[in-house]
Structures are given as structure tokens and as C-alpha cells.
Specification:
The protein is α+β, with helices and mostly antiparallel strands. It has helices at residues 14-22, 24-30, 111-133, and strands at residues 2-10, 34-37, 44-50, 53-63, 67-72, 84-92, 97-106. It has a 7-stranded antiparallel β-sheet with strand order 1-7-6-5-4-3-2, with helices on one face. It is globular and about 40 Å long.
């Protein structure tokens, strides 16, 4: 299994970035259109990204506003719901916030597609959305 890692700088507070990962309003603003989220260890995180792409997992650990860990996988896909883990570290910087995402447990055949996906959603969607969010 392989680990993907992405680090980005965001022009927003750590609290705002944390909210984007742990609330239905935050997640729907940048990641998906139908969200079910229960931000506590063992609580569900389900995101319908678009028709036919539904991510399902569960929160493992939350340390507000610095850490979000959840299991990750896709309905009807070889990466089954909950079969990999995403860790999001949120660190305050000098006027910005540094977000480091580590996605572990990915089969080698899925590295390229998930690397493209995280690059798109983190850089193209999350960073701009959270900066406008607050």
C-alpha cells in the first residue's frame, strides 16, 4: 500500500479550515453535493461527489482545530468504503494555514487517480473556497 501526501497553504484560519472538513455546510462548499457528517470518533462521513461517486467512511480522530482523521472509500469501487485512511493536519502559519493531507492504504493501481483527485479538490476547490469562507 502507498501513501499520498499533499501540502497546501490556505489564506484562512485553522478554525475555518477545520470547519470545512467537519460540517455539512463546509464539505458541500468544496467537495460534494449531498453530505452526511457526524464529526465524532466513529461518526459517519458520506459525501456524494457527483452521480456515481459516493465516498463513505467514518471519523477516527478529531482534535479541533488541528487534526481530522477518517476512513475513506467509494461505493461500488475496488477501494471499498472505509478501506483507506485520510489524515488532515492543520497548522497555523504566519498569516496563513498549512494543510497537510496524508492518504494511506491506497493500492498502487489507484495512486495516480487519487493524486489527481486530491490535487483538484485541495488546490482548485478547498483553498479558494475556505479563503472566501472566512
Amino acid at each position: 500500500m502507498i501513501t499520498l501526501e499533499h501540502t497546501i497553504s490556505i489564506d484562512a484560519s485553522p478554525a475555518a479550515v477545520f470547519e470545512m472538513w467537519t460540517t455539512a455546510d463546509g464539505l458541500s462548499a468544496w467537495w460534494g453535493r449531498a453530505i452526511e457528517v457526524d464529526p465524532r470518533p466513529g461518526g459517519a462521513i458520506h459525501i456524494e461527489v457527483d452521480a456515481g461517486h459516493v465516498m463513505r467512511g467514518a471519523f477516527v480522530e478529531l482534535v479541533e482545530p488541528r487534526l481530522v482523521v477518517f476512513t475513506f472509500g467509494w461505493e461500488g469501487h475496488e477501494l471499498a468504503p472505509g478501506s483507506s485512511t485520510v489524515e488532515v493536519r492543520i497548522e497555523p502559519g504566519d498569516g496563513t494555514t498549512t494543510l497537510t493531507l496524508r492518504h494511506t492504504g491506497l493500492p498502487i493501481a489507484l495512486i495516480e487517480s487519487h493524486a489527481r483527485g486530491w490535487t483538484h479538490f485541495l488546490g482548485d476547490r478547498l483553498a479558494g473556497t475556505v479563503a472566501a469562507w472566512g
